Amino acid sequence: MAGNENLPSGIPAMTKTAAAPQCSKGDDTADFGDFVRNEDEELDLEEVVEPWYNYDIKETSHVFHPICLGEVLNGRYLVGNKMGSGGGSTVWMAHDFQETKDVALKVMASREVLVFPLMGPCLNWVILRDMPMATRMSAARQLLEAVEIYTKLGLYTVYSTDLNERNCMWGMAPLHNLSRSAKYEALGRPPRQIIPLVDLWKQGELVRPVELPENLRTDEFYLSNFGLAMKLGNPIIPKGYPPTDFCFPDPLHKMKPSFACDMLSYMVIFGAIYLRFPPFRSWRYLIKCLGPLPEQWKGLYNHPQQNFYRTWTLF
Predict the structure, then answer these.
(1) Domain containing residue 121: CATH number
(2) What is the pTM of this model?
(3) Where is this region: Disordered (predicted)?
């Protein structure tokens, strides 16, 4: 298990501090979520979870590690809910028996597990739609301060992968003083299903991610992932794939990543926070708005997904 300390963030000018629900800790006998009961519930679950074939070694080289609700990892972390999933990991809400608090466990396809503070929802347009301008601009400032700390450490991101909407998160009121049944009352009981169609070496489950109620979200704003960060001047670039909405084209044309790429990605996030929707609908639209790429870059595109190439050849 690899630990991670609280991530840096500025103190917002206007902060909403959510009140944590109160309940006795006596009830720890509640079961873990609800198994789907019919085909309709299976289809509903399928729409919001990672594909089952992410766990199949015949389908992908980056096989996810199967996890079940109620499982205890490293003899310390009791998995109680699902926070989400990404291209190479799943994220789980777990109770740390040693520290007596809830944490987020990022379970990588490599079977490494990163322990993070438990955060609230990531940047999404449903939340932004009804959010006041002052709150949104406070979030933008906090994110800029986090990027400043990042750069003062001499770090920048590869393909700006760490600077995207999935890694920008609001805070969450603490729930570690609640029993498991009270947590489910606050967050909802997660539907779950045994991973189908794959002969797994251990049992795993597909679990619906938490939808955090607005009354548990706080206005603290965090940059939560430094998975592909590297020191300036390091000649070895970690492998990774860019999120198309937040990546600028320099590294995709054999240009070295730089702080400038991170700032450009930050400005895309700022635009999304300000406008309440992504400023660029596609890479083609980005080039239409910002102008063509340098002529000398033509023919240097090196991203393996060739379907994007047509977008980047508008010179």
Answers:
(1) 1.10.510
(2) 0.76
(3) 1-26
